């Protein structure tokens, strides 16, 4: 995710993915990562970072399903790998990087070529609006999960990759995805980061591909499109002719269709509880995840964190370790011992 073009596939990093569904009512894009929680919560920090086979995929954000009666439920999307999960240690990744910088892409391409098609189960978690008012955590905070015991996974379909691109540039490098692209029945939520990403993606695509990037074959909807967009470089059709591109208008131009309005939000109670800066517990779920790990997994985690923090000024190391301690005492102590800071930690506490 963070590596620039040409970065090695096997380097330790977050993995991103994106899907484009060509529906009869337009395109629906779903973007996500291989982590069940996102790594940034403040939407203003998102552009600072995001300009740059065998894993689960998570839509990260909370979206909404809206039925024909105008009833809304909140939803999270999950893609569960049917290949199982495969991970690399830093040492294994270093060896692979030295031999093959395109290791993951090569594995995916060759698997599809020999008809060993990778598959994922598409599952959703569903939360009613009434339930969202009562959760002890902000259900729209993408650094939180919805516990599966409270909101179990419901399989609604499957994803299979069964064709490699005929032209890599046309079908992959020119592809553009945005959480802003939804279809009737699927909507957004009060997730602050999602609201920010709705704007950020299109800005990046206009810079990368040009203002008419949605007219490229790989991005073009497979249904008639009504849009306010006109003109611009690389426009090969009539560009709307003499029709106006604003609404309301007096010239027979586009008219808003109330059938596709979303129902109003029905969030009751204190609105401040949806502000992550006020009383939102950032440590309980992190500690629970650490305790779910095996001893070997815990050892690898604290070892990787310690290696990444070497060379960082000691006061900053101690400040970060304090966060780990609030999640789990063994977590914090493990990182401190790996950095040789056990005595300093005790003195600070």
Could you walk me through the main structural features you see in this protein, from its secondary elements to its overall organization?
- There is one protein chain.
- By secondary structure, the protein is α+β, with helices and mostly antiparallel strands.
- 31% of the residues lie in helices and 15% in strands.
- It has 2 domains: 16-274, Catalase core domain (Catalase HpII,  Chain A, domain 1); 284-348, no CATH class.
- It has 11 helices and 8 strands.
- Strands 3, 4, 5, 6, 7 and 8 form a 6-stranded antiparallel β-sheet that branches. Strands 1-2 form a two-stranded antiparallel ribbon.
- The longest helix has 18 residues, at 192-209.
- The radius of gyration is 23 Å and the shape is globular.
- The protein starts with 15 loop residues before the first strand and ends with a helix.
- The mean pLDDT is 86.
CATH overall fold name of the largest domain: Catalase HpII,  Chain A, domain 1
Strand content: 5-15%
- Overall geometry: globular
Low-confidence stretches: none
How many individual β-strands?
A: 8
User: Which CATH class of the largest domain is shown?
Assistant: Mainly Beta
H/E element sequence: EEHEEEHHEHEHEHHHHHH
Question: What is the CA–CA distance across the termini?
Answer: 37 Å
CATH superfamily of the largest domain: Catalase core domain
For the sheet with most strands, the description reads: 6 strands, antiparallel
Helix fraction by DSSP (H/I, runs of at least 4): 25-40%
**How many separate structural domains?**
2
Question: What's the number of helices?
Answer: 11
Structural class, please? alpha+beta
Rg: 23 Å
| Multimeric status of the protein | single chain
CATH architectural arrangement of the largest domain: Beta Barrel
Average predicted confidence as pLDDT: 86
């Amino acid at each position: 995710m963070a590596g620039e073009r040409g970065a090695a596939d096997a380097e330790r990093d977050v993995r991103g993915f994106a899907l484009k569904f060509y529906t009869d009512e337009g395109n629906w894009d779903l973007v996500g990562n291989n982590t069940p929680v996102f790594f940034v919560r403040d939407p203003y920090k998102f552009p600072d970072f995001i300009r740059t086979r065998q894993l689960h995929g998570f839509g990260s954000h909370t979206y909404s399903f809206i039925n024909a009666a105008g009833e809304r439920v909140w939803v999270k999307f999950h893609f569960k790998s049917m290949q199982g999960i495969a991970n690399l240690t830093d040492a294994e990744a270093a060896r692979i990087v030295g031999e093959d910088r395109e290791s993951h892409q090569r594995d995916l391409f060759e698997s599809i070529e020999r008809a060993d098609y990778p598959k994922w189960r598409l599952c959703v978690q569903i939360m009613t609006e009434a339930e969202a008012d009562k959760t002890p955590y902000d259900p729209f905070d993408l650094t939180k999960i919805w516990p599966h015991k409270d909101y179990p996974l419901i399989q609604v379909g499957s994803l299979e990759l069964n064709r490699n691109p005929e032209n890599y540039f046309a079908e992959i490098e020119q592809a553009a995805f945005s959480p802003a692209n939804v279809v009737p029945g699927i909507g957004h939520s009060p997730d602050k980061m999602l609201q920010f990403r709705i704007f950020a993606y299109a800005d990046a695509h206009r810079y990368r591909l040009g203002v008419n990037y949605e007219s490229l074959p790989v991005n073009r909807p497979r249904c008639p499109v009504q849009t306010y967009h006109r003109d611009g470089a690389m426009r090969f059709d009539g560009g709307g002719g003499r029709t106006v591109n604003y609404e309301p208008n007096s010239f027979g131009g586009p008219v808003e269709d109330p059938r596709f309005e979303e129902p109003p939000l029905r969030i009751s109670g204190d609105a401040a509880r949806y502000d992550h800066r006020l009383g939102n517990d950032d440590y309980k779920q992190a500690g629970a995840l650490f305790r779910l790990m095996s001893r070997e997994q815990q050892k690898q985690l604290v070892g990787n964190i310690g290696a990444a923090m070497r060379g960082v000024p000691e006061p900053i190391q101690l400040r970060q370790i304090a966060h780990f301690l609030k999640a789990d005492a063994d977590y914090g102590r493990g990182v401190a011992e790996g950095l040789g800071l056990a005595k300093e930690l005790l003195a600070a506490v």
